[in-house]
């Protein structure tokens, strides 16, 4: 078994901006030359997450953001705001809830995703950010 | 280190149907012959999740489903419904929230789970589905 | 590639007690002697989770706990309470939602975390607990 680690850099708009990384992750697996293993996709930072979703406009432009706004609203008297003069308490809560990483297995060099299942970066922060996503391939 | 990948196929009833996969996953680890490592349990598709839970009827037949119904209700004017004529917007949101995979370490060929902690597939879709869960063992 | 597995034992106070494990996890990676790979951090039990968060008092002493109390309240007629005479139904739901593990890649022996991103144990149980967290390093 071997391991290789790459970075994806992406500029986001924040506010639950959802970016499809599937093609880049699949290409990194292909370039690794490994046939069977798992890829760890991990975002650095505490106001963004990695998950999978069907990448269609209804969900990614509206439903997922509105859902998280209902359960962890932007406009709320978070202690994080009072202590630091920030406005992104909701982003921290959402990121810790959804989580910073996803692990996806591959066989014959192909990710074992469903047709309607994409790997995405979700940026919950309340401004545009330059994000670094680490893509680590472990396998043989 | 070595890697092996197997599939579990299971028919679900949807609507937050929770299926205990612990025994099958433990058996796949045992059959791999590996002693120390981690198992990646990953469900293909964007309306189901993998997590751990105490597999007792109160939680798996009622509490977890009702909890998700409160935070991501079935009956809601999701954009996903308007665009695609579907009724499973809630299933997509819940699946992206809980996540498609869990990674569980093992030592001496045994999963390091608690006694009351089972690995489960949760199918959030709004109909019966035939699901494929990939179980990949990485270790030595 | 090689694998090593260690344990962290920690006494918690329950009720969404959040414990920073970053230093211990980084030290276990360093002691492994491995340069590039991923660490699996997994908590045994069904009423606690592992995630990442900015470890500052506003979020960890107040906001995250209050957020989870709003979406999965302690005081609720859970079936789990009726069947088992327990009071920790909320803890089970929160733990299954946030998840039992996180996977963090490292390069040059250093975890690829952000400056304000810590690996934490979150104990949702409704009493003090002695917790075992497994830290497994896979890499080369």
Q: Would you list the SSEs of chain A in sequence order as H and E?
A: EEHEEHHHEEEE
Percent strand of chain A? 35-45%
Overall, the morphology of chain A is: elongated
- What structural class do you assign from the helix and strand content of chain A? alpha+beta
> What distance lies between the first and last C-alpha atoms of chain A, to the nearest angstrom?
4 Å
Q: Could you list the spans of chain A in which at least 5 consecutive residues all have pLDDT below 50?
A: none
Mean of pLDDT of chain A:
98
CATH class of chain A: Mainly Beta
Largest interface: A-C, 31 and 36 residues
Quaternary assembly: homotrimer
The CATH homologous superfamily of chain A is called YjbQ-like
Strand order of the largest sheet of chain A: 1-8-3-5-6
CATH topology of chain A: Jelly Rolls
Please describe the biggest sheet of chain A, giving its number of strands, its sense, and whether it closes into a barrel: 5 strands, antiparallel
Number of helices of chain A: 4
**Structural Rg of chain A:** 16 Å
How many DSSP E strands of chain A? 8
Q: What's the number of structural domains of chain A? A: 1
């Amino acid at each position: 078994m071997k391991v290789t680690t790459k970075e994806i850099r992406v500029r986001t708009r924040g506010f639950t901006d959802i970016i499809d990384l599937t093609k880049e992750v699949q290409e990194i697996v292909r370039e690794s030359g490994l046939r069977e293993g798992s890829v760890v996709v991990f975002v650095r930072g505490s106001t963004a997450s990695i998950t999978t979703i069907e990448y269609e406009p209804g969900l990614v432009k509206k439903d997922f953001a509105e859902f998280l706004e209902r359960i962890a609203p932007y406009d709320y008297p978070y202690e994080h705001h009072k202590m630091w003069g920030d406005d992104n308490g909701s982003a921290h809560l959402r990121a810790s809830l959804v989580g910073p990483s996803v692990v996806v297995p591959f066989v014959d060099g192909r990710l074992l995703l469903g047709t309607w299942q994409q790997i995405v970066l979700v940026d919950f922060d309340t401004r545009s950010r330059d994000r670094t996503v680490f893509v680590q391939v472990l396998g043989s």
